[in-house]
Amino acid sequence: MPHHVRTLIIGSGFAGLGAAIRLRQDGRNDFLVLERSNEVGGTWRDNTYPGAACDVPSHLYSYSFALNPDWSRSFSAQGEIQSYIVSVADKYGVREKHVFGCDVTGARWNADRAHWEVDTNLGSYTADFVISAVGALCEPALPDIKGIESFTGEIFHSAQWNHASDLRGKRVAVIGTGASAIQIVPAIAPEVAHLDVYQRTAPWLLPRMDRAYTAPERFAFKYLPGFQRLSRAGIYAMREAQVVGLAKNPKFMKPLELIARAKLRAEVRDADLRAKVTPNFQIGCKRMLISNNYYPALGRDNVDLVTDGIAEIRENAVASVDGTVREVDAIVVATGFHVTDSPTFETITGRDGRTLAATFEEIGQQGYKGTTVANFPNMFFLVGPNTGLGHTSMVYMIESQINYVADAMRTIDRSGLRTVEVRRDAQDAYNRDLQDRLSASVWMNGGCASWYLDKHGNNTTLWPGFTFEFRSLTKNFDLSAYDTSNVARGADIIELADEKKTDEKKVAAR
Asked: What is the C-alpha to C-alpha distance for residues 24 and 91, in angstroms, rounded to an integer?
């Protein structure tokens, strides 16, 4: 018999761990967290490449209920963030609720029993509710390059760094110039014999205002009441100011562009290299990156920036479309993740027998308040559609979604409900409003193509406004947007509810 729990959480990064803590705080102890790895942490557990660090200030990139006064720097490195996440799991006693090494291979809604059936490598589970917290940056995307499988040297993705590989004294190619690459390149450039950096699109870079905290600051964070929260509030306010240019009126991005251009002129003296790394789109259209050592690394004698496209990869070399062949011993693939086309979408099957992938294929990656999706009853998605950010901490959005889920659980219990499923008309109306708001943003008018957009050309990744607007939107669970069934007579009640809505529409039409 499958093991049954009230709630299953899939994934244990910031989102899954936060959900587990909230369930326990609310006295809901009938839950499990299924985690395919052997530790909590999600992307901060997995991304251990050289130079890995966060681009959101430390005091903001943490749970509001678990502030960390011991951050060593204004922008923390991967190891420090991972240690923080592990400490939170231990502090709030949810590790015992985890099933580690448990890889979810499929989840199906059983309409007759009104529960989810979840298959894993460790056996089967059933649950009344599922909280998907797999994250947007968990499935590495490999480039579709001719001959890549024929390469005989070392090759690995930035999110799957091979620490057994010693790159010192070797010829290395880094494919990509995104957030991971601009941290990797400066970290390995001094050690390798030669480094080729393959750039498709030049990113906009801003200064990284990083420094170690002083002893008096760390003392104040720990012992002066309110000091850390005040610092956090100040960081939050400064970050939110970027929304005016990003989502409201792109002309307000001009000050940041001037800063980025000044940085470019100061750090790249060679005119030819400067031309190569100058972006051809409006700042903010793609993810803005922060670094103080990427441009200097590109200027090293042993580093070449290659802007010609890759034609193919051979046994020991990378061939560019201009005919140049560059021999390499190792290739680091820093080409991002499957965000709008995650393989996990194929493994979740909804009420009508269609997978999440098939549903998104038809309508695009759409959800309701980023948290629920029509056709998938009793399932909540953390870091779901249009919850991503280009300026501040995702932890703030995650906590907002957790608030919504927690209130949903209270509402369900209070009303004696068995199932809740967002109505398709409510979801459609919500997404029409989202796309209308996004139409004025720099992401849709900045002249770039990015992973923010799905194949329909819609921005299904980012939230189009201030994060406090999203916090207000998800404060309470709005039951009126959902179809429901009752515990006692599920099928009859939902049928009557549908009939009632039809009658109400007829009356309204008169």
From this structure: 12
The structure tokens listed for 100 are 């580690």
Please give the pLDDT value at position 362: 86
Q: Can you tell me the distance from the alpha carbon of 172 to that of 149, in angstroms, rounded to the nearest whole number?
A: 17
To the nearest 10 degrees (0 to 180), the angle between helices 215-223 and 227-240 is 100
Give the 3-state secondary structure percentages of the chain, helix then strand then coil, rounded to 5. 35, 20, 40
Rounded CA gap, 80 and 283, in Å? 30
> Residue 494 above 60 pLDDT?
no
The Cα 353–Cα 407 span in angstroms is 28
- What predicted TM-score, i.e. pTM, was given to this entire model? 0.92
Domain over 3-139+338-509 is classified CATH 3.50.50.60: yes
pLDDT of residue 303: 98
Residue type, 346: E
CB 360 within 8 Å of CB 345: yes
| Locus of tokens 């179809």 | 483
Tokens representing residue 425 in the block:
């008309």
User: Where along the chain do its domains lie?
Assistant: 3-139+338-509, 148-215+250-333
- In degrees, rounded to 5, the angle at the alpha carbon of residue 343 between the alpha carbons of residues 338 and 346 is 145
Fold of 148-215+250-333: FAD/NAD(P)-binding domain (3.50.50)
